[in-house]
């Protein structure tokens, strides 16, 4: 009887182990990005972080769906203290630039290389569902690396990246197969992460909103429309609250984190929607005073209360006004505003349902 020795390096048991490592890295990266989003001052990075963490949620979902077909339970610890230590330490970066450098220039870069290696070394036909997941994950991951390269072009590699690289090497790389090095001592620049209770903004913004809390009545449609889209440009405040909730709820079921990642991303998109509308009407969104006190006020409560305040309070009560404005947009032929608000309302209905 002929017995063949297959060239593929990844057998069924090893495949499960590797997929679980990847899932763990993607999941922890999602949570780290969520933790840092409120305290990151750079608005362009904030907007990107909402998208990045949502994409990582898609990657976790792909891997989760595959893992539950080949192991029970699908979610389990990676069984590698060094890997867990790496992702725990990645949270404690000295600043947001170093955080992103460690995540993308070190961890994600290695993750992409390992995904590609895995594609070449698994059994292509028997493991086709895994290859399908990798194909779609890699599209996002490669674009993420390109984004990070451009965003961090002026940020030179430093001590923090070296530390994260050392921790990754101590874990045997993403796959755990590489020769393991000694765990490095904590970097001198390491800064213990402090849960942000205030939302950060860069120097272009004013944090004083003199109209906050005032009841505005008897304004014409054009003024009300401008106020509405200025408000949209501040919806980062909602994204920051959802991001904080993700950070505060590590023990919630995956379905909640998955939905919350989308909710956070939606709110960054709504913020960008307001920014784009203002730009198309010749206005600079950085001139809109930022009412960050809303985030500060919500952040004093537990995660469940914060989510209720946002979804069952702010979002639910916005619908009557949105309907009035939609009627006005239809009457004036304002297709741009109507389309923007239509998509916003579709998202908000989902958020209220989740809440």
Structural class: mainly alpha
SS element count, helices: 12
Query: For the CA atoms, what is the radius of gyration?
Result: 23 Å
- Cα distance, first to last residue? 62 Å
Overall pLDDT metric: 94
Predict the CATH topology of the largest domain: Ferritin
Using the coordinates above, name the CATH class of the largest domain: Mainly Alpha
What does this protein look like?
With 355 residues, this protein is mostly helical. The protein has two domains: 12-170, Ferritin (Up-down Bundle), CATH 1.20.1260.10; 221-354, Ferritin, CATH 1.20.1260. 66% of the residues lie in helices and 0% in strands. The protein has twelve helices and no strands. It has helices spanning 12-36, 43-70, 81-89, 96-121, 128-151, 159-170, 221-232, 236-248, 254-280, 293-299, 303-332, 335-354. Helix 11 packs antiparallel against helix 12 (335-354). The model has no long low-confidence stretch (mean pLDDT 94). This is Ferritin-like domain-containing protein.
Which short descriptors sum up this protein?
355 residues; mainly alpha; Ferritin; 2 domains; globular; Ferritin-like domain-containing protein
Question: What's this, in brief?
Answer:
The chain is an all-alpha fold. It is 66% helix and 0% strand.
Helix and strand topology:
Blueprint: H1 12-36, H2 43-70, H3 81-89, H4 96-121, H5 128-151, H6 159-170, H7 221-232, H8 236-248, H9 254-280, H10 293-299, H11 303-332, H12 335-354
Helix pairs in contact: 1-2, 1-4, 1-8, 2-5, 2-9, 3-6, 4-5, 4-6, 7-9, 8-9, 8-10, 8-11, 9-12, 11-12
Protein name: Ferritin-like domain-containing protein
